[in-house]
UniProtKB/TrEMBL annotation:
GO terms for molecular function: phosphatidylglycerol-prolipoprotein diacylglyceryl transferase activity. Keywords: Cell membrane, Membrane, Transferase, Transmembrane, Transmembrane helix. It comes from Solirubrobacter ginsenosidimutans. The keyword Transmembrane applies. GO terms for biological process: lipoprotein biosynthetic process. This is Prolipoprotein diacylglyceryl transferase. Coiled coil: none annotated. GO terms for cellular component: plasma membrane. The chain crosses the membrane at residues 60-81, 173-191, 203-224. PANTHER family: PHOSPHATIDYLGLYCEROL--PROLIPOPROTEIN DIACYLGLYCERYL TRANSFERASE (PTHR30589:SF0), PROLIPOPROTEIN DIACYLGLYCERYL TRANSFERASE (PTHR30589). The keyword Glycoprotein does not apply.
Length: 247
């Protein structure tokens, strides 16, 4: 699923980015492996008790997954480093890629249906996800259906991506990326409140809840500062066909 997600993200970003298309390929080439490394490092830092106590434990991705916060952080950071090295406009590239990231994350979440991960509290709703007994939390062994949090995230991400596309050209760069940070984090606040899988807790609350709240506030403040700057009307990530012909 990861490979499909990256390919789709590259296609979307190339359609939206008005600069050199090869830069998108370069960012993906560097950002994807960096995202995998960042995701694993975050998982090791926040869920160390789930890592096998052997020398190869930190590398055993089949014994414990990837933390999406770490994956996004390191993947985006390395990708933007490549943009900076090429001398391209950083805010424009960030806004061009924001919807693509959300679509890619949605594709990646489809894998949670197959491995029965990222589900929430028990529910009797018609769309409740049936979880095999071996994947259920101990306190819910007598319950069969749970909230499909991964499905909620897929729907949210695609809706947010559509909103960002709709706002393209109406918001100063990197305002769309700031909304991506705030919007995705807002969903994660909801998700962390209903998830029941094992997690590191602080003051009785899941660690990732605090991360989501901090990033949501950061994204909103960032957007407010970008939108509040006095400037001319924002330019879309991709120039119109007419302007390209005239230039």
């Amino acid at each position: 699923m990861y490979a499909i997600a990256v390919i789709v993200a590259v296609i979307i970003t190339k359609r939206r980015y008005s600069g050199d298309p090869s830069l998108v390929d370069e960012v993906a080439l560097w950002g994807f492996p960096a995202g995998l490394i960042g995701g694993r490092l975050y998982h090791l830092a926040t869920s160390w008790n789930e890592v096998p106590h052997t020398w190869w434990g930190p590398f055993a991705v089949w014994k414990g997954g990837l933390g999406i916060w770490g994956g996004i952080a390191l993947g985006v950071a390395v990708g933007l480093w490549r943009v900076k090295r090429r001398g391209a406009d950083l805010p424009t590239f960030m806004d061009a890629g924001a919807p693509a990231l959300l679509v890619a994350q949605s594709i990646g979440r489809v894998g949670n249906w197959f491995n029965q991960e990222l589900f929430g509290k028990p529910t009797n709703l018609p769309w409740g996800l049936e979880i095999d007994p071996q994947h259920r939390p101990e306190q819910y062994l007598d319950r069969a259906t749970f909230h499909p949090v991964f499905l909620y995230e897929i729907i949210w991400n695609l809706a947010l991506a559509a909103l960002l596309v709709r706002l393209t050209g109406k918001v100063r760069a990197p305002g769309l990326f700031a909304l991506y940070v705030a919007g995705y984090s807002a969903f994660r606040i909801f998700a962390e409140l209903i998830r029941v899988d094992p997690a590191h807790h602080i003051f009785g609350l899941r660690l990732n809840l605090f991360v989501a709240v901090a990033l949501c506030i950061t994204g909103l403040v960032w957007f407010w500062r970008v939108a509040g700057r006095p400037a001319a009307r924002a330019a879309p990530p991709r120039a119109s066909a007419g302007s390209e012909r005239q230039g």
